[in-house]
Design a protein that fits this description.
- With 116 residues, this protein is mainly α.
- It has five helices and no strands.
- The protein is 80% helix and 0% strand.
Length: 116
């Protein structure tokens, strides 16, 4: 069974049911997540496990707050690996994280009526 991409109840809770505010939250989340993904790539290239763990933790938290379950799960995997000093294994998880983010971005944009 596939994992959920978005926990709609959590997302509705975050927006308070306000559609305009939801669109703003989606825009902010997507922009921030794209920046965090870029930071993760840089940290991976530098083999900086502290930056990997910190950035993955930030992405996990913002994703969980938005109900973006699939991204939060993959970010947690990277955070856990970085804490165990398994930087090389983070490289194996990053593509899955990017794929899940792509799915989530498309789902979020679809929910708020933005081009996917």
């Amino acid at each position: 069974m596939d994992r959920p991409v978005i926990d709609r109840a959590r997302l509705d809770d975050a927006s308070g049911g306000d559609e305009e505010f939801l669109r703003e939250l989606v825009d902010i989340y997507v922009e921030d997540a794209e920046e965090r993904l870029a930071e993760l790539k840089e940290a991976l290239i530098a083999a900086d496990e502290d930056a990997l763990g910190r950035t993955a933790h930030q992405l996990k938290g913002s994703s969980a707050n938005m109900g973006v379950v699939c991204v939060a799960d993959e970010a947690k995997r990277i955070e856990d690996l970085a804490r165990r000093h398994a930087v090389a294994d983070c490289a194996d998880v990053l593509p899955a994280l990017e794929q899940e983010f792509g799915r989530a971005r498309a789902a979020l944009h679809s929910m708020v009526g933005q081009p996917v």
